[in-house]
Amino acid sequence: MGTTTTTHASTPARAQPALLVAGPIAWARANLFNSVWSSLVTLALAYFLIKYAVSLVDWAFIKSVWTVPTDPATGRLDPTACRQAKADGGACWAVIWDRYRFILFGRYPFDEQWRPAIVIVLFLGLFVVSAMRRFWRKELALIWVATLTAIFVLMWGGVFGMRYVAQDEWGGLPITLILSTFGLACAFPIAVLVALGRRSTDLPAVKLLCVVYIEVIRGVPLISLLFMASVMFPLFMPEGLNPDKLLRAQVAIILFAAVYLAEVIRGGLQALPKGQYEAADALGLSYWRKMGLVILPQALRLVIPPLVNTFIGFFKDTSLVLIIGIFDLLTSGKIAVTEPIWQAFSTEVYIMLGLIYFCFCFSMARYSRGLEREFSKSVRR
Amino acid sequence: MSNGTPPAILLDKVNKWFGQLHVLRDVSLEVATGEKVVVCGPSGSGKSTLIRCINRLETHQEGRIVVDGTELTDDTRALDTIRSEVGMVFQSFNLFPHLTILENCTLAPIWVRKMPKVEAEALAMEFLTRVKIPEQAKKFPGQLSGGQQQRVAIARALCMRPKIMLFDEPTSALDPEMIKEVLDTMIELAESGMTMVCVTHEMGFARQVADRVVFMDQGEVVESGTPHEMFESPQTDRLKLFLSQILRGH
Ligand SMILES: Nc1ncnc2c1ncn2[C@@H]1O[C@H](COP(=O)(O)OP(=O)(O)OP(=O)(O)O)[C@@H](O)[C@H]1O
Ligand SMILES: [Mg+2]
To answer: How many domains in chain A?
Structure first.
């Protein structure tokens, strides 16, 4: 035992200024400067951190250009200031100011873009309501159905005096939210059934089916599944019956996500002690009651972290629909910068896209941590 | 012992294998309504397996098991009926950790017996009072001591108003100071006239409440009789050996 540390630790707290015992200085001393090596590493990291943070701030805020004037001769924006800023090592946020509506809503008719804007708000509201445990009741399903109906009415239009907008004109954030929300909402119940099926002992045929489904889908990349859905699937369909491209991509995403979720859920089912199954059986609960009331509530709580991990992964994976030409957020961002005057400023647009994705994923992560903490309070074993 | 009324539990030449392992060999046992039977025997002798066959947590391969007049077969409908008539208490309590004590107790009455929630809660409180922990109703199992958890497990089983109660070493996972509170609960239950089959090594309990003690070894019922006969004048060498080991252990 090092004598220095023992004397330090055993000194009564009253004898030292509180700051040195529990404050930030004490913390830094204990965690960042507790040995020569650790001090060196701390200093080196601090140097790089400050150096790059400074140049980032410099690029993003100090040398950057936020708006550009309109060229009176052509009536178009004049990006000269941006070119100048770029040459000086600054960002050009004017591109986002000019193109944000295209990035968010894609090719949706300009005058009707209030509709997808409301759709985004509806989605956010739906997420917030679903996240509150207070609303975890049967009525929540109704809220979902109602909101999703409203979302599709708004997107399609053709009623209540709204103009009809064909699905290939949709784009941007609503597409990403539709694909991921529907994808995960539909994949989840399928995943639960598949996980239960895979563990079933008295229905070998069901079990085999589930195993085959899981292994086949898991064995191919999502991209190839999307290609199949968009290119091959129509070939097999009878003439005239051709579900639209978005729906086909949606089905592919659901089938794919369900497999990964099912495996995560199966892990939770396996982790539960056998005694829980037996106690439920011994009380005379039927199979579905046993699963719904005893097993799944516990199994799903156990797998919140990997479950949310999968959710986050799929939220981002929806951007793969780019390759089959569906106009999601990433696609619209990419197309937004193909316009000649903005071609040099794609970095700024991708940063904005990254921030949007980050906000969604980070909220999911934070939320799941809160949920975990809340559950672990009640389930102390 | 047959006095006209059919037995609560009847096992007739029951055989069970786990793969190659022959764990129950021609086990025959009759338990009359209201009778208390204690099953004892060395570890691995098949006591748990026997008791778990009675509510079909394990399936037997040969012989007949009739519980409360219904034979145990693959018919799941009959099985659910039998399970709701037979309460079981496990060594490891097996309370549902995500539900409160009260919810643990009302779950089966509400979902199996279709009892209204208010009524189920009143019933649960009645039994929680009987096992002397009504004040813990709103807590979660993880917040209770082992002895309290086991008493909740007993109350949970009783809430189904079972005709038969099975106990599989209910006190062997408990600290010594908690054993008594659980045994007291069981004694009280026995005095109320419940039909009970208990696997336990608590000889004091056996002496006090058992009508009959059944000694098992290597999957066979070796000897059975009143506690007095069994403990004072054991007939077989195997039982003598077992008793000497038990007594040395205490
Ligand atoms: N699920 C199982 N699969 C295979 N073998 C098993 C299984 N359950 C029990 N056995 C075996 O069956 C035999 C009897 O087990 P059982 O649990 O009935 O014994 P027990 O008398 O209850 O012992 P203990 O006093 O240790 O609880 C043991 O040899 C055990 O290893
Ligand atoms: Mg046992």
So the answer is: 1
